[in-house]
Specification:
This protein is 8% helix and 50% strand. It is mainly β. 47% of the residues are buried.
Length: 467
Amino acid sequence: MKIKQILAMVTTAALLLVSSHSNAAGFAIIENSASGMGNSFAGGAASAEDASTIWFNPAGMMRLDNEMLAAAHVIVPNAEFTDDGSTTAALMGSGQLDPTNTNRTADGGQNALVPNFYWVNEINKDLKMGFGVNVPFGLGTNYDDDWVGRYHAVKSDVMSLNLNPSIAYKMGAVSLGFGINAQYIHVELTSAIDLGTLCLAQEGTTFPSGYCASIGATPQGSDGFADLSASGWGYGYNLGVLYEVSKDVRVGFSYRSGIDHEVDGKADFSVPGELSFITENTGNFLDTTLTAAVTVPATTSISYFQNINDSVAIMVDYSLTSWSAFDELRVVYDDADSTDGYAAQAPSVTTEEWQDAARFSIGVNYQASDDWLYRFGVALDETPIPSAERRTPRIPGNDRTWISFGVTHQADSERSFSFAYAHLIVDDTAINNTFEASAAAPVLEHTLTGNYEASVDIISAQVSWKY
């Protein structure tokens, strides 16, 4: 295949990349092939049956002919929130949060499309190169801007793009693989600001009692709005080993490094005109630039694959993701763009304290004929979120169970098509998260208390060409 055609397909895949609801632990996206989806990604580091092995274990390229693969995944999440006693900040009496609001349920899930592209090419019989384009991390939740949890989150949008050139070398029964990752990430976070409460808290000190009511400002009735966005590139690596014990048994190990992203962007604030005095002489809630650090975690996987006979194969996988690196999300604001010389407002900090999370999967293939292969898989996927207190409506995740099915059709000697479906059962999820305001505004530390009932459906398709 000509280089121009290859570059065109890579560009097309990159242009298709969109934000998505995360479907592995945390905000990771595991949907990186439709063939793997059919087995719940069991045996990912050992299967090495198509070009998607560039992501799961680059050493697996040594088992492949020259190949190109394109895949797409339609993700349909459902995350229904029901309020169960959300309260205002302790300094404001810990009363019912937004008592006049009838919008006390919400579904923040967003449908998404996640594409992948991989290319493997032989340099010589013992050396191969590859290139992958995919979306390893993503998040998409979007609530009504008047829901009861709007001070914690309205929109959360994380989009990533990973470019992964790789190389593999074979030494007898052992293959080694290595790749470089150039990763772009874009983050947008929005939320409401309870300026009515902030106004009321200043009565009797900054201005007389009754002043807020006189201008029509009431708690949870006079909201401002914050829109924070930032993006940047980070770099890491991945490596893998594939040991072919026999023609029917192989064991794989892979490691993908964490990546530290230093992102730059802007903060756009909307403040009702009657409350503009809140920004005066403070620098708070003024449009400005910002910086933030976003760390995506390292992942280690060990996989096993075995052909039981000519028709049946089994595979297992254990993966550990080092989410403990995600300790907090800190947004640092620069000086406001103002001629009044305001100092920068205090950083926005969300304590995460996530824990490392494991994923265990097992799968079975059934080769019904030379042309048709059927797949089945189950997986248990741990959440890294340690407690209801650390769970936020931006990522209301919990432990989940995967059940998946798939089929691959070998159309001819060059082309194959794979389709898969997965249903994710998410444990009922409690949330009891207190918003972390700056030291200057503890009256905004409202607590969102309730439960999520969640599930996810995924439909995947891919086409593979050997050339």
